[in-house]
# Entry
Amino acid sequence: MSAIKQFVLFLITVTVACIAQAEPPRLVVQVTVDQLRGDLLNRYRDHFIDKRGEQGFIRFYEKGTRYTNAHFRHANTVTGAGHATLATGALPSQHGIAANDWYDVVTHHEVSCAEDPATTLIGASGTGASPAMLTASTFSDELSMATGGQAKVYSVSIKDRGAVFTGGHLGKSFWLNKSSGNMVTSSYYYDAAPAFLSAFNDSGLKDKWVGEAWGLVLPPGEYHNDAVNQPFQSRPHGFEAGFPHRMPAQAGADYYGLLSYTPFGDQLLAAFAKQLVESTDMGADDVTDYLAISFSTNDYIGHNFGPYSLEAEDNLVRLDRTLADLFAFLDKRIGMKHVLVVISADHGVDAIPEYKKLKGMPAVREDLRPAIASVAASLAKLYGTDARLIEHVGGSGIYLSEDAIAKAGLDKAAVARETARLVSQIPGVALAMTGAELTGRDLSYDPIKLKLQHAFVPGRSGDVMIVLEPSTLVSPRPAASHGTPWNYDTYVPLYFTGWKVKTGAISRRVSPEDIAVTLSSVLGIDSPDRATGSVLGEIADLH
# Structure
C-alpha cells in the first residue's frame, strides 16, 4: 500500500472514530430513588443478579460506572433540597431550596418548596406546583436553551417536589395526586391537560391493585432484613401488621393514598413514563431529550417501616424489576446505546432509633419541645419581656419574632446569639448557629458547620440552625427519618449506564452536584448557572 493510501485510510479511520465518539445520546434518563442510601444496592446485590434475563440495578454493575463514595455536601438532607441539587449541580445556599418546607415570616405560615398558589392543578382540583422557588438554572433548562427549545424535557414523580425541580423552569412536570390517583401537572406548564395525560388517567391502570395483596416476592429465607411487625414501626392507615399488606377493596381516596406506600406506586409511575416516551416520541431524532423519573415509594416505606424492614427490602427487589422492564422498553424503542442513564438519590436515611437500640447501638428519640419552651422562657426572663420572642420552630430552624423583638427594643442579632447559646446546651443538640455566623465566613475547617452553611438560605432558613447528635430523632413520627449532615443521610449511589459509559467502580469522594455538570459536558452545553460540581470524566471518553 502506498504512503498516500495509508494516509487517506488513517484520515478516514480517525474521522469515523471522532464522529462515533462525538455522537451524543438521544435520550438522557435521570433516575432518582427517594431515600436510597448509598450502601443499600450493595446490601441487596444478590437479589439483582440477572436470574431472569432482565437487568435492572445490576446493569449499573455489569455495564456501567459506579461512584461508590458519593455524598451530599449540605445539611437539611431532604427531598426538596436534594432534588434541586441533583437538577442544578448547586448547593441549597445557591439554588434556594432550603428544605421541603420553611416558615414565611411575612405571612406567618409554612410554605412548601414546590407548591405555587398562583397555579392550579391540571388533572385534578387544587393548588398547583411550579419551580418558582428555584433560584438557579437546571441541566434541563440549559439543554432547552442549547437546542432552541427543540429538546423534549419531562419529569415525573409521585411527589410534586420530586418532579418540578428536575423539570426545571422550561420542562414539563407531572406527579401523582393522592386523592384521585391521577397523574397531574399544573397551569404553570399547560393551559389544559395534554391528550396523553388524559388518556393515561382514563385507562383505569390506577385501579389495577384494588384489593391486591402486597406480599413477599422472594422466598422468606432469601431476605437480609429482620425488622418486621415491630412495635416501633408505624403503619400507613389501613395496613395490617406484617405481610401481606392488602390494599382497600374499593377505589377511592384511601386506596389512592396507600399506593405511595407500596411498590404499586412506582409501577404506576413507570407505566406513565413509558407512555410519555411513546406519546411524545422521545429519543427519536438527533436532538437529545431528557426524562427525569423520581421513584418515591422507597421514602414512604422507609419512613414508616424503616430501612432494615422486610417492606423496604422487598420494595427495592420489586423496583429492580420495574427498572428492568423500563430499560428493556427503552432498549427496544431507542436502543440503550443511545440512552444515557444516571441513577442517584436525594438523600439517605438512618435506622429507626428503637431498632438501633435493639441491636446495641446508641440512638435516641427525644421530644425537644419542652426544652425549646424552656429556652423561650429563659429568653423572656433575660430580656425582661412577656413577648414571645421565638415565633416558630421547624425543620429549617428557629425563627425569631421580628415584631416582638422590635417592640421590646431588642437587638435581633443579640437575641439570636443567645438563643443559639441556650439551644446548644440542650442534650441531643450537637450544634446551633445563627444565620449571621453562617454568612460570609470561611467554615471549611469544620465539615459539619460547612454543611450547615451550604444549607442556609437567607430569608428562608431560620434565624438559628440546629444540628442534632447522630441517631437522634425529636418526634414520635415518622419511625425513621433523615435531614442531617451525618454520613447516613448524605451517602447516596451515583451510577451511570448506557450510551458509551465505561464499566468500573470509582472510590474517590464525589457529590451529586457533579451530575448536572457531567451531563452538560457530555452534550457540550453550558452548565447550570450556579453549579458547583465537577465533571466525572471516568464515565466515558468526554471531550
